[in-house]
Amino acid sequence: MTRDNDYISKQKFMQELESYRKGSVTRRHFLNVTGLGAAAAVMGAAVPGLRPSPAFAGDIGDRVIVATWPNYHDPENFEAFTEATGAHVQVNVFGSNEEMLAKLQAGATGWDVYVPTNYTISTYVEEGLIEPLDTSKLPNYDGSAFDARYAEAGSVDGTLYAVPKNWGSTGMAVNTKHNDGKPISSWKEFFDIARDKFTGRAMVHDYQLTTIGSALNYYGYSFNSVDENELADAEKLLIDVKPHLFAITSDYQPSMRNGDAWLTICWSGDGKQLNTDMPEIHYVLGREGGEIWSDYYAIPKGAPHKDAAYALINFLMDPQVNAKEVLAHGYPTADARTFDLLPEALKNDPILFPAQELLTPLEFGAAATLTDPNRAELMARFKSA
Amino acid sequence: MGACTPADSKTIAELRGVTKRFGDVLAASDLNLSIREGEFLSFLGPSGCGKTTALRMLAGFEAPTEGDVLLDGDVVNDLEAHHRPVNMVFQQYALFPHMTVAQNIGYGLRQRRPRLPKEQIADKVSKTLEVVQLGGFEDRKIWEMSGGQQQRVALARAIINEPKLLLLDEPMAALDRKLRKEMQIELQDLQRQLGITFVLVTHDQEEALSMSDRICIMRDGRIVQVGSPQELYDRPNSRYVADFVGTSNFFDGKVADQSGELTTVCLNNGLHVRGTPVGELISSGEVTISVRPEQMTLHRQGDGLAVEVRNRIFLGEHTEYLVNHEALGDFLVLSPRQSELTEGAFGVGDKAIVSWEDSAALVLDRN
Amino acid sequence: MTRRTRNWLLLAPAGTWFLVMLIIPLTVVFIFSFGERAPAGGVVPAFTFEQYANLPARWAAFKNTMTLAPIGTLSALLIAYPLAYYLAVKSSPKWKTILLVLVIVPFWTSILIRSYAWIFLLGGRGIPALLELVGIEGVRLINTPFAVLVGIIYGYLPLMVFPIYVSLDKLDKRLLEASSDLGAKPWRTFLQITLPLSIPGIATGCMLVFILLMGEYLIPALLGGGKVFFVGNALVDLFLQSRNWAYGSAVAVTLVVVMLITVTVYMRLINRLGASREDVSIM
Q1: Which of A20, A217, A315, B346 is the most exposed place for a label (fewest CB within 10 A)?
Q2: What is the pLDDT of residue A93?
Q3: B-C Cβ pairs (cutoff 8 Å, strict)
């Protein structure tokens, strides 16, 4: 998945690991928790030989700095943007929404564009960390083209703060080879088989939202629950499961690929990639529910290259460009114009676009779920147990 | 001094045809030497002559490439140092910096098995400290001791073990001149007192001459001559030894007649001189005549070499003249006070005649 | 320029650095530790000991750190010492240079990439697969405390080797000859001379490794699969995930205090060992 491109040296770094990792594109990749991805990207920009010379010097400046998730873009699109505008795209990648929020709260990030998930946007607005968008500077954005479910979180109190990038679901990936060819279909099965037949082979995310959410789903509770008793149940389950887990990690593709692990909580894009390369790995949504989410483009308050930020978002809103993005990252788009440009096979892909009845029980993460201190502390207790 | 060592005393250590190579470097070649019990033997030679290698083979730090090292009649070529009843005083003393004086000195005793009682070790350490005149210094740290004191500690650390051989590797090189003189005398006293066989390595001829019963002169990894200081001084077997031991004047020439008891040598200026042959002269007849300055006499007239006085140094008991001969160049003459009184002193620029007894002129191999 | 001004100028860069990068941040962290978590994350000023009262919730992290850091340090020492000894005392000058370079070479690569290599080696297709070939089945290495220990030893070995190497290299080899000459068998020479004289190197190496290990979080995260949790990991989570700066600061302050206490006790111990070297040498 990682295309060879020298626009950031992160790509080279990823290649080093590729033979083993076989192109993991986990969204909240561990590397980013280490900050190394960001450091490498900054370095890449600082080395003159690694920077393309612009075709012309546009008046939007010579650079635009993007905070996003790993392997979430088509590098060729960024190259094309640089060629067209002269602004070099500098990419910083992150491990979690919490981390992104923490960095913005600490201040002076220097970011021009960032990619928040639906449930974080209201918090950014409350904290005054996000810039309202001027749609006149985004001619390629057409609000009516988007499925409202995946676009509505971008507006708070009638003001547009963020435009949809793509959406996805959080389910589970299971290697059916070890379960007599049968997939599993519920969170109940997930946590039960993890303690039984799949002991030492299952993984949960190093991310409170999805890991606690899945444990809550086990009991039929809401993915977003902040109810004390329900959280206590979830904690009990997680701590009971922990000794049986292979790992608590958001970088689960390598272990799934090399056969060390057989089961994991999984984002749909990863599920798609695993399934494509290893058909015995199935991506399924939990019958009880789970998460559905949507990522957005936004501009942080005090962005140093605001014109370039608008130019880049507008560029990425172009359906032709966005279609290429979808082909690169494997997540579904909410933009009907882009959808129409996708190959037929992808339009009917059950992982990208699951049947409606499977989507119905899924919930969007809530802002309170992200910022709830009890959930954060529960996760920490689980990890250090 | 040789008198105190009976010549017929038994051999305590021996080198038999010992050769040592370090890679391509020949450090010692065909060494043959018997060390007698109770004697004070010195290896003398310039640096790199192989004397330290010889000592290290006796200590057990090096094994000979060829030949045998014997201790008390046993071949010990491969016996490691810690099994040999031999101790060494190292050049820079090699005292253990993390131990006190007493711990350093008692180190050897603490290695003994079965263990010696602590009190016995402490007692012996104190006594040994007395012997080297450092009584009461037990608890001092090594770095608190002066160079001379450290030397005594090193000595005490070695002799406390009552070794069959005490090896001393340039033990006084780090001391100043005055201290060195004192230590030389002390070492000799100590050796007589303890009766231990001492083997000293030095490049200082004065040190070797003043302390040793016998001296083994080495050059380029070979033993050149072994003998008492007097023998080496009076009967050096080569120009090298004559030059290394004491001071001598050398006149190069060719053997003209070897028929009699004395050899006649034709010097480079055509002058014929008679002398006593020492050792084997090489067949080419290229030899040198060696005459010690004190065996030459200066006269106003008579037979001998006509010279001019170039310099005069009054030394009290003697007067040292630097004289010049037209063909033979500069050489030294040492005149006793007595002859000055009878003959009268010579001044710089005076003409004089130099002569010597035939027996004082040694005919030596030129090398 | 007076000497006084010159001295101040010499100290100014380091002093400023310390002030800006160490003293001020530490003070800030100390102040934060008495605060409370802001509703959306971060910190609001307060004066409460609540964060410190909550420390037992991170007991496991402290326990893991305080167990694996000493074990890791000790294991690194046991592996590094013979290597350093060989390098300094036994190897020929030619090999010495080559081997020293080999010890340094891993430092040219990021610890991250090197740890990824271990993920593979310890993973199911690595060493366990080899063990299966010889009939030892079901060995699980990755994501265990053992894997973390392996990573720690591997990552920190050069830091242990070098100080010990330096102290052994400085060691006057004639002292070893002197010891042998005085009748000490090789292992007694080692115990009585080599080992005591290399204590400064051992002390430095252990201190370096131990202090760094106390703050380690990358290796447990990568090789422990998120299941072996150090204080460092707890801190990363508190600041970057749950954004509870107040509690994170309290944990950080506690870690610094624990570290200071440990290092002080350790220094005392080393000093006492140095002072009573007679016991060491009389062994």
Answers
A1: A20
A2: 83
A3: 75
Domain boundaries, chain C: 58-282
Asked if the C58-282 domain carries CATH number 1.10.3720.10, the reply is: yes
A330: amino acid identity, one letter: G
C182 contacts on B by Cβ (under 8 Å) = 82, 87, 107-108, 111, 157-158, 161
pLDDT computed for residue B60 by the predictor: 95
Q: Does C170 lie at the interface with B, CB-CB under 8 angstroms?
A: no
pLDDT tens per residue, range A276-310: 899 999 999 999 999 999 999 999 999 999 999 99
What residues in B contact C193, CB-CB < 8 Å?
A: 96
Q: What is the largest CA-CA distance in chain A?
A: 62
Give the sign of the dihedral formed by CA A250, CA A253, CA A254, CA A259.
Answer: positive
Checking if the pLDDT of B343 tops 70, the result is yes
pLDDT at B73: 92
Reference A69, options A21, A122, A116; nearest CA is A116
Contact C182 B80 (CB under 8 A): no
- ipTM confidence: 0.84
* Interchain CB distance below 8 Å, A101 and C58: no
DSSP B103-114: HHHHHHHHT-SS
What is the pLDDT, as a whole number, of residue C274? 65
For residues A168 and A108, which has the higher predicted lDDT (pLDDT)? A168
Shortest distance between the Cα of B184 and any Cα of chain C, in A, equals 22
The residues in A 243-282 lying below 8 A from C, measured between CB atoms, are: 245-249, 254-255, 258-260
Q: Give the mean pLDDT of C254-264.
A: 93
Confidence class for position B50, pLDDT limits 50, 70, 90? very high
3-state secondary structure of A62: coil
Mean pLDDT of B257-277: 84
**Residue (of B35, B39, B38) closest to B73 by Cα position:** B35
Tell whether A98 is within 8 A of chain C (Cβ).
yes
Domain range A10-167+294-347, CATH class: alpha beta
pTM of the model: 0.78
Q: Map out the domains of chain B with their CATH numbers.
A: 2-234 (3.40.50.300), 247-365 (2.40.50.140)
Environment class of A26 (CB within 10 Å of its CB; exposed 0-12, middle 13-18, buried 19+)? buried
- N-to-C CA span, chain B: 30
Q: Which two structure tokens, joined as six digits, stand for C255?
A: 């870690």
Residue A72 has pLDDT above 80, yes or no: yes
Q: Which of A382, B319, B361, B1 is nearest to C60 (CA)?
A: A382
What's the rounded Cα separation, in Å, for the pair B182 and A153?
99
The Cα of A301 is separated from the nearest Cα of chain C by a number of Å equal to 17
Closest by CA to C143, choosing from C219, C89, C217, C88, is: C219
Average of per-residue pLDDT values in chain C: 89
pLDDT tens, position by position, A73-123: 999 999 999 999 999 999 988 878 888 888 898 887 899 999 999 999 999
CATH among 3.40.50.720, 3.40.50.300, 3.40.50.150, 3.40.190.10 for A168-292+354-384: 3.40.190.10
Map out the domains of chain A as residue ranges. 10-167+294-347, 168-292+354-384
Query: What does the alpha-carbon distance between residue B297 and residue C85 come to, in Å, rounded to a whole number?
Result: 66
Beta-strand relationship, B318-325 and B329-336? antiparallel
Question: Which among C178, C192, C280 has the least Cβ separation from residue B90?
Answer: C178
Chains with at least 3 CB pairs less than 8 angstroms from chain B: C
Chain C residues interacting with chain A (CB cutoff of 8 angstroms): 37, 39-42, 57-61, 64, 110, 112-113, 116, 119-120, 123-125, 140, 142-143, 218, 221-222, 225-227, 229, 233-234, 236-244
- Taking CA atoms, what residue in B is nearest to C172? B94
